[in-house]
Design goal:
4 strands, mainly alpha, 222 residues, Fic-like fold, two-stranded antiparallel ribbon
């Protein structure tokens, strides 16, 4: 697919913002409907949800708005931390701060009962890795590589998939590559591929193939 103009991609992202927030919330286990997501984004109150669920949706909206205001932001550690700080403002402990030895260790349960324990993030390594991913020629593969890197890295106390999704979309917007989101009906498949990748780096290509088939949106902005 040929890249589109950045401004056209920005319009596409704005058009699908509520849909993207709805999808991201559902992947995180926040069971808001699309109309409820729209209402929350419009500043209305909705019943039947915990306050932290509403706050998570509002934070996602603010993270998207930051991307709209900074579409040419560099894909670097500062941007990564900014997105986590905004997307997790009301729901993540020490949002925007890399995990350290004083934080509770993260344990991700894999499909067969084993656990993936991500190492503590090292700022210098993240800086180098993001340069290696984002400085190559812009392509869908690079965007998906970026998502996989941030999602598996678990650099923050929480909100890592949200952060990975928003950063990936920022990369795609600035390079005219469309937008990225995970359909709720594919959530189980997504988690199966993701947990396989957590347990084995050799499973990354299968995850990327799944994401390329089901999680990319291109289209007219009219």
């Amino acid at each position: 697919m040929a890249a589109m103009d950045m401004q056209k991609n920005l319009l596409l992202a704005k058009k699908y913002m509520v849909e993207s927030i709805f999808r991201a919330a559902n992947v995180e286990g926040i069971g808001v409907t699309f109309p409820e997501t729209q209402a929350i984004c419009d500043g209305m109150s909705v019943g039947g949800h915990k306050i932290e669920e509403i706050e998570a949706v509002v934070d996602l909206k603010h993270a998207w708005q930051w991307c709209f205001e900074h579409p040419m932001a560099e894909i670097n550690l500062e941007t990564l931390q900014t997105i986590n700080r905004i997307a997790g403002k009301m729901t993540v402990i020490n949002a925007g701060c890399l995990r350290d030895q004083y934080d509770t260790p993260i344990h991700v349960t894999l499909r067969y009962g084993e656990r993936y324990v991500p190492p503590l993030p090292q700022a210098n390594m993240i800086i180098q890795d993001l340069i290696a991913i984002a400085d190559e020629d812009a392509a869908i593969d690079r965007a998906l590589e970026l998502f996989c890197y941030v999602a598996k890295g678990q650099f923050f106390n929480d909100g890592n998939k949200r952060t990975a999704t928003i950063l990936t979309n920022l990369y795609m917007i600035r390079n005219g590559l469309g937008i990225f989101s995970i359909p709720p009906e594919k959530k189980l498949d997504f988690y199966n591929f993701l947990t396989d990748f957590y347990g084995n780096d050799d499973c990354k290509d299968a995850l990327k193939s799944f994401l390329a088939e089901y999680c990319l949106t291109f289209g007219p902005t009219e």
